[in-house]
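Note to self: the last two entries modelled the partners one at a time, which told us nothing about the interface. This time every component goes in together.
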Amino acid sequence: MALDDHKNTDFKFIGTRPDRPDGLDKVTGRARFGADAYAPGMLHGAIVRSPHAHARIVRIDTTAAEALEGVKAVVTRADFAADLSGEFGFVLENVMAGEKALYDGHAVAAVAASSALIARDAAKLVQVVYEILPHVTDVDAAMAADAPVLNDTYADATVPAGLHPNVVRYHDSGHGDVEAGFAAADLIVEDSFKTEATHQGYIEPHACLATLGNDGKGELWCTTQGHWIAQKTCAALVGIDTSQLRVTASEIGGGFGGKTTVFIEPVALALSRKANRPVKIVMNRSEVFRATGPTSSTSMDVKIGMMKDGTITAAQGVFRLQGGAFPGAPMEFSAMCAFAPYNLENVKQIGYDVISNRPKQAAYRAPGAPMASFAVESVIDDLCKQLGLDPIEVRLKNASREGTKASYGPRFQRIGLVETLEAAKTHPHYTAPLKPGQGRGVSCGFWFNHGGETSVSLALSEDGTCQISVGTPDIGGSRASMALMAAEVLGIAYENFRVTVADTATLGYNDVSHGSRVTYASGLATIKAAQDAVAKLCKRAAAKWGIPEDAVYWEDGFAKPSGANAGNFDPIPLAEITKDMGSTGGPISGHFEATPEGAGVSFGTHIVDAEVDPETGKTAVVRYTVIQDAGKAIHPTYVEGQFQGGAAQGIGWALNEEYIYGEDGRLQNSIFLDYRVPVASDLPMIDTVIVEVPNPGHPYGVRGVGETGIVPPLAAIANAVSAAAGVRLRHLPMSPPRILRALKAQASEG
Amino acid sequence: MRVEVHLWSGLRSLTGGLEKVSVEAASTGELLAALARDYPQLAPVIEAGVSVAVDGRIIASSLTEPLGPDNEIYLMQRLKGG
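The predicted structure of the combined assembly is written out below.
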């Protein structure tokens, strides 16, 4: 079947909203999350963490800890693989410090003991002698000439000469002549913006249970978005063969990009090897904040020129991303996504990846894009206001379309930005009256989406039901989506499927559940595996009828002869073929393994109403509408949930969430009481509109929706808040103190 | 056959300032190998991970995608997500 055979056809199952198959398990507590694993003789691990932002590790004395009754093992960097380089080297350095502790919370040793309490007590007995070094935690300060150097070998070949060694990667892209473009503008707005680091805020902390014997064979149970990458990374870090480590992904209590790497898992394995017992480690919330990946904080400059009719003549942006102690801040994605919604003849974007004495950043839904969108869409909002233009009309006038040369270079294939803007323009929200003190903001956003290595197996049972094995942890309702797509191909009821997230020993390699790829790539693989099974079912029917295989087709769960020439046979239902499959050729399964490369990019448009209390600076988001192109919504309720989740997290990022470091370089708000995520009373009803412009690279047109939804909120909320407050807010989060300062500054300026 | 490859300008310092380079390649794999061979300073960047955009379709990792002289080809940062 050609890729696009099903596109734009009526579906029987796709687009319906059945109950999620894992729902009952999760609401009754039957589902097993990361911390729900136990093993006979299990020990508990605890990690010793640096209290200093930057310090040389002079000596570690584990004697007292090892002497404590109940302690079975203590590990330091010496217990891990030596001579790792590249990405594995950075991960190891983050998992367990070598010569230097690079941030407050950096792991320097770990213990395993017979109880969690003894392990924590023993961790306090590990004596570490530090030589404290100067530190830096701010991105602009880290680029300054006199900034302390974290490591003078991290910069790669892209970094121009003369920059501080803390600048470790550089990106520069664009096309046209921006100076000529600015010269043609009627109005130019140039502004600077900052955003603070935020955490993905998943409700489940990192947790794992590991066993590793001296024979180099191990098992790992952990909460992760990608157990194959966990397998590969952990095996490298503890120095065993990849295939000898079997990894099972638990149910996951949220990840949002923060569980795409490893932190405690290699430590548990190293402790297990030393103690010859299973070891369980569960992070507390403070450890999650101090030592797992928040986003990058940013410092950005954006300049855009516009004509009186709203045509953008030129745009440029500089995006400086603080990525913590190791390279990898997603500044390329900031730069490449910043202006992607717009068809620009002249555009230039520069990105800097800057290391500092903070925990290594980790991906957080569309990494790098939300912050860049905040800066760019704020400037566009200012231009619209100053020129008296409608912000949606201006975005429509400049919108990227099929064939547009993207700001990052290539031409877009079929995309749905214009459709989201048209839907926004006609949505009742856009013209609803505002109350005094309220403001409205709009913003567009873009994300690439991703394919990645994918394997799926689909096994039919004798009773005509079906088991699907996927390798992508279910972080957004993918079990339901896979069952719906398989039901569409096989033509049997959704309830006849059970979808299992297989472990690393039972399926081929699978890339991580990230990049909005699961419904796209695992979905495509599921469809192909189901088609493989259908071909085998048709073959069995053909054998029974004594006709050629290609004279049989599959429809609505039945094998049917393809026409009068094929013969006059009654259709055979799936269950009748599987009932006898053991005696007609053996079990029937479908398989598909590939790296799909047709992920379609995605755009969204958000509308927000906000109300600002000028006395307290408190902001309330009073109405929110998300409009996004899903390509095709397989299970619309989950698509809406992704839209709403992105908006809710965006509200937190825009209004309250931030990492606050003291002058001593230590994190000051490492628990949820001090790091304020939105609660139910902070959120309005979040309305959603699903736009469906099919992705040409997927059988049913799926684009993936997990990430685009968090790109526009920061800017849309900032534009709404700025309109309500009467002053442009340039620094996120727009917490009450920052809003009050902005109001005060505006008043003093007269 | 020879194909043209657009480079983001951060890479241009590694190719003597060239915005576009031409190499002999019939697939994405041959393209990356030819770039690393003809422009050795690009090799570490390619080794660290890149994607290739072919007529707007972003190829994240496949080395077997066919290429022809009429394709619009961009070397890009390796895509991933959150």
